[in-house]
Amino acid sequence: MPKTRDEKEGIIRRLTDEFKNAASVVFADYQGLSVTGADEMRSKMRDADVNYMVAKKTLITRAAKDAGFDLDASSLNGMIGIAFGTEDVVAPARVLGEMAKTTTVKLVGGIFEGEVVGEDKVIALSKLPSKHVLLGQVVGTIYAPVSAFVRTLNAIREKQEAGA
């Protein structure tokens, strides 16, 4: 059954709000995804604090323009689902990238730092580790020289104790 004008306007308002509030947006072609695959994907999205919506391309285009983005969703291939990331900028791309490895989901584009980007950049971003993992790596890198210095001092102490 076709949606009424009021229902379409409601969808456009919701999409516009999501576009405005999102730190990043990823578009994915979900064609051929099974119901269990869709449920699994939505569960992973909730766990990563990512909002996911499906809408017609004309409504997506209109909402993106209302939010200030120059996007023509009709140029995106397939049936489009939209993942909106609010906290972690890379989370939508990472979750959809993981799903693309085992299902028919395909990354087709996105919006990062206020700029519409293509499939190749979204795929590259999907391979980045999470923010927490990156912060852990930075702390580990900073801590490594201190840890090596402590081990060296401990080795000298053990050598002196063994010689005494």
What tags apply to this protein structure?
single chain, 164 residues, alpha+beta, Alpha-Beta Plaits, 2 domains, five-stranded antiparallel sheet, 57% helix, 16% strand, elongated
Layout of secondary structure:
Blueprint: H1 5-21, E1 24-29, H2 35-47, E2 50-54, H3 57-67, E3 80-85, H4 91-102, E4 106-112, E5 115-117, H5 119-126, H6 131-163
Antiparallel strand pairs: 1-3, 1-4, 2-3, 4-5
Helix pairs in contact: 1-3, 2-4, 4-5
Q: What is the straight-line distance between the termini?
A: 89 Å
Within CATH, the superfamily of the largest domain carries the name Ribosomal protein L10, N-terminal RNA-binding domain
Instruction: Label the structural class.
Output: alpha+beta
Taking strands numbered 1, 2, ... along the chain, how are they ordered across the largest sheet? 2-3-1-4-5
- CATH architecture annotation name of the largest domain: 2-Layer Sandwich
The biggest beta sheet reads: 5 strands, antiparallel
Low-pLDDT regions: none
